[in-house]
């Protein structure tokens, strides 16, 4: 799986960081998302998918075949 984030769309709600802090963090400057692991290990895929679902800005995209 490959994860991409669009920081221009991100509103800094922080749902992703709360849901999966091993993959997502927030910038200390403006609170927008920081992607820590673009290729998360398989055991994190379920929670990464949950992050993409709950993101209010639809700023997280996933390529499950990459
Ligand atoms: S959940 Fe979405 S809007 Fe909120 S910080 Fe993460 S990427 Fe940004």
Throw out a few tags for this protein:
binds iron/sulfur cluster, 66 residues, two-stranded antiparallel sheet, 23% helix, 2 helices, alpha+beta, Alpha-Beta Plaits, 21% strand, two-stranded antiparallel ribbon, globular
Describe how the helices and strands are arranged.
Blueprint: E1 2-5, H1 15-19, E2 24-26, E3 33-35, H2 45-54, E4 60-63
Antiparallel strand pairs: 1-4, 2-3
SSE order, one letter for each helix or strand? EHEEHE
Task: List the bound ligands.
Answer: iron/sulfur cluster
**Major beta-sheet overview:** 2 strands, antiparallel
List the total number of helices.
2
Can you give a write-up of this model?
- The protein has 66 residues and is an alpha+beta fold.
- It has a single domain, classed as Alpha-Beta Plaits, CATH 3.30.70.20.
- The chain has helices at residues 15-19, 45-54, and strands at 2-5, 24-26, 33-35, 60-63.
- The strands form two sheets. The chain has a two-stranded antiparallel ribbon with strand order 1-4. Strands 2-3 form a two-stranded antiparallel sheet.
- A hairpin with a 6-residue loop joins strand 2 (24-26) and strand 3.
- The structure holds iron/sulfur cluster (SF4).
- Iron/sulfur cluster is lined by residues 5, 10-16, 24, 26, 33, 55-57, 59-60.
Brief rundown of the structure:
It contains two helices and four strands, in the order βαββαβ.
């Amino acid at each position: 799986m490959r994860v991409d984030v669009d920081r221009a769309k991100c509103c800094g709600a922080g749902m992703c960081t709360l849901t999966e802090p091993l993959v997502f963090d927030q910038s200390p400057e403006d609170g927008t998302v920081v992607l820590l692991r673009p290729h998360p290990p398989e055991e994190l895929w379920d929670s990464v998918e949950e992050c993409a679902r709950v993101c209010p800005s639809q700023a997280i995209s996933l390529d499950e075949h990459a």
